Amino acid sequence: MQVPLASKVRAKVDPHQQRISSRISIGSDPALEGNVIGDEVNTRTTDVVVSNAKRKRPVLRLIPPCEDLSSSSSIHQSSSLSPLPTSSLSESDILHPIPIESIRNKITKRQKPASRSNNLEKENEFGRKKVHSNWTCSKAPPNILSLLRFDHIGGAPTQQALHPATQPQQPMPVIRPLTPIIRLKVHSGDDEQAVGKRKRSAPSVQDRYEGKQSRLPKQRMEPQAKPASGKKDKQSQRPKRTSNVENSREDEVHIVPLPSMPIEVSQGMPSSKLCKVLRIVGGLPRATPRRKEILSAPIKHPPVWAESRQELCEALPYYRSFQSGLYMHRRVAFGYLLEAFPAPRDIWACDGKVIISHGGGQCIRTMRPDGTPGPVSLQADQSHLDARVDTLLLAYERKTPIILIAGKGYEGLPWDLECAYVVLGWYWISSSWVEAEISPKEVSPPEGRNYFHRVKIRFDWIENQGEPWWINPLPQGNKVLTAMRESSPLTPLSSEASSPRRTPPTGVEMWSYDELDSRIPWTQDGANIGAVNEKSPKMDIRTLLNPSLGLLTPPLSSSGDGRASSTCDELKSRKHDRACWPGESALTTQTPLFTMTESSLQNPAFYPGEKCRSCRQPINQIYQEGLICLNSACKAFFLLHTKIGLLPIPPGFHLSYNDDFLVPRETPREVIIPYDIVPPEPAKRVPETEDAYEVGGRTLWRGWVCRKCGRANCRYRWEVWECRNCHNTLAPLDPACLVLPEQSRLSQPPFLGEAKVDPKSGIKSNIKMINEIGCICVIYDLAPAGKIYHLIQPHSAVSDDLLVEYQKSANQGGWFQRRALKAGAVKGQLLAQHFAVNTGASYKYQVDTLSYSFERSPQCVLMSLALITNRVRLVLGEEIGFNEILSVMYREGQKMSWHDDGETGLGPVVASLSLGSSAIMSFRPKSPNRTEMNAGFYTGISSKKVNPNTSLSITLSHGDIMIMQGRGIQIKYDHKVVPMGFRIASTARVIGDR
Ligand SMILES: O=C(O)CCC(=O)C(=O)O
Ligand SMILES: [Fe+2]
Question: Which residue ranges have biased composition labelled Low complexity (predicted)?
Fold first, then answer.
């Protein structure tokens, strides 16, 4: 049916669809239910259906007015539908795929005048609307300074820090994967008309992935590349096809059935024969695996590099994620890490000016039997519903610049990385699309298929940074090299739109079938795809192509390996309980959808074009092999458009990127670099340190990028920033800068330590007066594990002295450092959060702390040892011969997470003195499977496997003493300490023979 241009539509809204009704008008026709995505919408009343891919039902239904509504029984059935004002939908919406953004804008504009999309749209100087980067230079630099502070490892910057303009806003709406489908039930003439109109329309959802913007002029909507054959002109002159296909009323998708073969790709059997068949029948070029670019090691230093993940996270405000490959906050992407786990077709191209990677999320990392991390595979479709994918797609839409970091083990990097991480620089996301990725055996894919949707992301170098630092300058006078570079595809295009149409990229060689027969031999291992090997047995191409001749058996190998005995019957008997990768069923069907004869090959039924044969959406040619529809809702999703039809792409089939596609793109003007990749030096810039030194504040444990060598460092020394590479130092602490006791002493000490006891824990408490010092001691009985004593000692001159003495020793330098944890959960060394020094017997539990003998230790340590020993004697009535003291200094925001003190040889009594700010100390029973010692953490990174119930928490204040009595406390319980500000703790133990 042809929809008159000038006509309007009426839309019906289902008022019961409350959930989406605020965003989009909803309509639902029971007659259409479940019959939308990827299926033919078999109703003559539906011309445009916007549907929710997840729910598989239409949500908005536009009805052409030329249709008599009264005659549409399906609509009448939906009597609850209420009309949507037609003014909200324009003519172009009726005739073209309706981009979800535009629908959302229409709806939200009416409801929320200051919506996000409104913010993004501004007039440019030509009066044309365009999308602006949501992150501009004027907004970012002052705020990025705020990001340099952090509360705890992995903590996120505040929203205000990110973007003041977004402060009062509502949460970002999640973009649902609504999929527009146009069902054209027309003959070819109408078809052309409709398609022509659609071309000028706003983009579809798929266009989001394909890099097309709704406000681009017409020419930009056209795909960049020519059809794979490169003979468009000739094709257009060809007579219209006369096959049965043309006579059918509707365009159908023809998936070419191939000779069935015993292919067990998933079990590691070679798929190369199948790949070869595909190449032959599809007239595809030989596989041209991209050779890894080899660059000599860069002469220039990377501007920022690191030896551990922690150094990255503490020194760089734009990468503070210990776990994920994307650092984001509230849907703003800051940094993206390229590491060891690539997805298919991830590449580094054009000297790293183009990097194609993948969306994170929905992945599981398998572990190898030896405990090392194995490959990462998808466990669900990637889509907007995943926060990380959505954030990347938003960055793509908004043209938010993003910093890329490469980690050792990232395969794309063309030189050997001598450190764990390097910051590459600023990139913008120029394209994104969806591909099919086979699901691992152990994971259930969505019903009816065995693949997941994987989002691919293409990053382009932001040009105004100059050349990437890793590209070595060309030797002077080296004309050959220069000439090579000039003709290389590195030459940036002036714009995507002006990209010249090119001849098929190198490597695309169209062979005649006779030639094919002679040129492509079969090899037994399939390793040499396309290579000419005279000794290999050959397969008659006609035999190969025509299943109707009963030639479905694989060629008999000269080595007689028995594969010839695999017959169709055998194949048929193989159970396929679900459809495989897109088009896989066509590989095994015995009823060809399209009969290949010699003449059909000579007069192909399908001419490659710029639009998908099935969904009619424009396709960018990303791969040399030809056009592939990347609309995940389309029947032809991830099928190769070839001259003879749509071919499935089996796993293991090598797709080579089209050279045209890999040409670096010109950076759009709205992409503005908001700050330098080398963060400002902390002490000089952070506002609170401008007038006076911070002492116990957060700034002084931030990381730092050394200006001399570019190393990102953790602040590991108490008194100064020091580069662990070149020993350059920054801003040593003024020794006279101290937190005084009156600053940390609370005017109103918490009553009885504000203890909280879980009534289910069975912990009993009582109070004892320590008459000698006039203090109260609260005793918690954690029978049978042991007891905890909290001696509340609000006014102690010794404690006041100790607070000052500790700081003097620390500021003097050399004592207090953040020490390395023994078992790092992340790449590289992992330091504990707190600064510590150990004295007396060595205490090597969890953190490898340097030990000084009591004779060599600072005076303050001996003073605290004496105080603790005295107080423990008063409380327990016995003299404990403590032989070890661990002194810990916490700056604001630091803490000690769940752990036990179970050092081998540890005596039954552990006692600590608290100085400075109060801290909450909590105890919780260990999980039943974690009663063994040595499994705790000192990092602040919380483990997921722990029992979350706290049995007891007490507030330790300046001067208080806490005693744990009984080995069972360490065996049965974990404890953690969260200070409220600058704090010092001195913990005494008895360490016996190990
Ligand atoms: O900071 C504290 O009070 C105690 C620290 C602690 O638990 C330890 O050193 O093992
Ligand atoms: Fe402890």
Answer: 70-88
Residue 369 above 90 pLDDT?
Answer: no
Residue with tokens 């539509």: 9
Q: Are residues 715 and 776 in the same domain?
A: no
Strand 764-770's sheet: what is its strand order?
A: 764-770, 775-781, 787-792, 961-965, 909-916, 983-989, 884-890, 835-840, 851-852
Q: Are residues 940 and 837 in the same domain?
A: yes
pLDDT at 418 over 50: yes
Judge if 143 and 79 occupy the same domain: no
Residue 225 in any domain: the answer is no
More confident residue, 418 or 61: 418
Cα(712) to centroid of ligand 2, in Å? 30
> Residues with beta carbon inside 6 Å of ligand 1?
886, 888, 896, 901, 912, 914, 975, 977, 985, 987
Q: Which residues pair with 364 in a beta bridge?
A: 377
Ligand nearest to the CA of 974: 2
Check residue 535 and give its pLDDT.
37
Q: Which domain holds residue 386?
A: 133-167+289-468+652-679
Is the CB of residue 413 less than 8 Å from the CB of residue 297?
no
Q: Which atom of ligand 1 is nearest to the CA of 834?
A: 1
Is the same domain home to 811 and 906?
yes
**Are residues 783 and 657 part of one domain?**
no
**Non-local CB neighbours of 415 within 8 Å, separated by 6+ positions:** 294, 295, 296, 297, 298, 470
For residue 994, being part of any structural domain is answered with no
CA 902–ligand 2 middle distance (angstroms): 9
User: Model confidence over 911-929: pLDDT tens digits?
Assistant: 999 999 999 999 999 876 5
CA atoms of 107 and 89, how far apart (whole Å)? 10
pLDDT at 34 over 70: no
Give nearest CA residue, ligand 1 atom 2.
985
Residues 396 and 538 reside in one and the same domain: no
Per-residue confidence (pLDDT) for residue 475, from 0 to 100: 66
Ligand 2 centroid to Cα of residue 891, in Å, is 17
The answer to whether the CB of 649 falls within 8 A of the CB of 586 is: no
Which DSSP category does 906 fall into?
B
Please, what's the largest Cα pairwise distance for the chain? 109
What percent of the chain has pLDDT above 70? 52
Cis-peptide, bond into residue 342, ω within 30° of zero: no
Determine whether 776 is exposed, middle or buried from the number of CB atoms within 10 Å of its CB (0-12, 13-18, 19+).
middle
Tens digits of per-residue pLDDT, 253-282?
555 554 444 333 334 444 566 777 777 777
**Is 34 domain-assigned?**
yes
The single-letter code of the amino acid at 948 is: P
**pLDDT tens per residue across span 855-881:** 999 999 999 999 999 999 999 999 999
Q: What are the backbone angles phi and psi of residue 278, rounded to the nearest 5°? A: -60, -45
Ligand 1: atom nearest CA of 912 is 3
- Please state the atom number of ligand 1 nearest to the C-alpha of residue 921: 3
Nearby residues for ligand 2 (ion, Cβ within 5 Å): 901
| Structure confidence by residue, pLDDT tens digits, 460-495 | 999 999 999 999 887 654 433 322 222 222 222 222
| Greatest mean pLDDT among 16-30, 363-377, 504-518 | 363-377
DSSP string, 751-810: GGGG-EE-GGGT-EEEEEEETTTTEEEEEEE-TTS-EEEEEE----HHHHHHHHHHHHHH
d(CA 58, CA 179): 9
- SS3 readout for 588-615: HCCCCCCCCCHHHHHCCCCCCCCECCCC
Residue 760 CA to ligand 2 center (angstroms) comes to: 24
Q: CB of 351 within 8 A of CB of 375?
A: no
In a domain, 193, yes or no: yes
If you measure from the C-alpha of residue 729 to the centroid of ligand 1, how many angstroms do you get, rounded to a whole number? 29
> Could you tell me which residue, 252 or 92, shows the higher pLDDT?
252
Query: Position 674: which residue type?
Result: P
Q: Which atom of ligand 1 is nearest to the CA of 901?
A: 10
